[in-house]
Amino acid sequence: MLAKIKDAVRSRKPGGSYEVDAVQTLKSSIRGWLREFDEVIRREPQSALHAILSIEAILLSDMPIGVESEDILIDRDMHDVVAHCQRIFSDFELVLERSFAQAFQRRNYGREALADRENVTHSYLVRYRELARREIALGEIGFGDRIAFVGAGSFPVSAIEYALSTDCTIQGLDVDSSAVGTASAVVKALQLDNQITLHNIGGQAFDYESFDVIVVGVLAKPKRAIMQRIAATASKNARILCRTTHGLRRLIYQPTSPDDLRPYQPAGVSLARGYQTLSTWRLERS
Ligand SMILES: C[S@@+](CC[C@H](N)C(=O)[O-])C[C@H]1O[C@@H](n2cnc3c(N)ncnc32)[C@H](O)[C@@H]1O
């Protein structure tokens, strides 16, 4: 399938115009992949990882130019496909995080597990390590910063990466009490409990007053209510980062709508390229 798409995209005419064929091929490939994925899951759930990685290779290939990605995503017939794809990826991420976090308890994992290349979660961790590195630069995160992270998950990989790379402290929030319990055990096993604390609360109800940096995860929802709560309680000097997606990566995670950011607006961005799935905005009050 990847080769077919590559050929179609390569047939793009020079000078900015493009072959409709490339877009059609991508649309039908994504639809076809979803059908196959549902089949595979029914027959052979353990092949899900392989199936997911094969669609990821296309969505992250950066092969279609901006206008081609737009054509695919705005097509009414693709709306269900987009929602279906996002559901698969977020379910997959939740399962991956939960199973890795549980392994910390069952197998007494420690910091060495974060570098174990044999582990199925390894590429996921590497991806978040790189994302955290980009966000540390974008948010100028450094010594002594107090960070609030909305949507920490059962394996709070972003908080862990911020903590290991800078001497900051992080309060991670999650609406899911079992995610908070599991994440707290992971943080203790990594001996990072002096830097990371988890709270069972939604980002739309938290008090952000005492934080230097606030990071809103891509799966944290409802975005509008979370942003309004941040606007109502955060200090005016707080640096605020919010994750989103662009291009075909919007099939992996629902992008954050600029309307939902109000009273903030993007003032800077770190764009996902290559293997990266998530982009991050740095926000300012409009
Ligand atoms: C899969 S995790 C991803 C985060 C990832 N572990 C990281 O470190 O970047 C997404 C989490 O966001 C949580 N979440 C969703 N909406 C939220 C909200 N309004 N406030 C806090 N957490 C939320 C979900 O319960 C889920 O555990």
In short:
This protein is an alpha/beta fold and 286 residues long.
Structure description:
- By secondary structure, this protein is α/β, with parallel strands linked by helices.
- It folds into 2 domains: 2-74; 127-285, Vaccinia Virus protein VP39 (Rossmann fold).
- It is built from 9 helices and 7 strands.
- The protein has helices at 2-10, 20-43, 48-59, 66-74, 79-106, 122-138, 157-165, 177-189, 223-233, and strands at residues 146-150, 169-174, 196-200, 213-216, 239-244, 264-270, 279-285.
- Strands 3-2-1-4-5-7-6 form a 7-stranded mixed beta sheet, with helices on both faces.
- Helix 7 (157-165) links the parallel strand 1 and strand 2.
- Helix 1 (2-10) packs antiparallel against helix 2 (20-43) and helix 2 crosses helix 4.
- The radius of gyration is 20 Å and the shape is globular.
- Residues 93-94, 97, 150-153, 155-158, 173-176, 179, 202-204, 217, 219-221, 226 line the site of S-adenosylmethionine (SAM).
Fold blueprint:
Elements lengths: L1 H9 L9 H24 L4 H12 L6 H9 L4 H28 L15 H17 L7 E5 L6 H9 L3 E6 L2 H13 L6 E5 L12 E4 L6 H11 L5 E6 L19 E7 L8 E7 L1
Parallel strand pairs: 1-2, 1-4, 2-3, 4-5
Antiparallel strand pairs: 5-7, 6-7
Helix pairs in contact: 1-2, 2-3, 2-4, 5-8, 6-7
The structure holds S-adenosylmethionine.
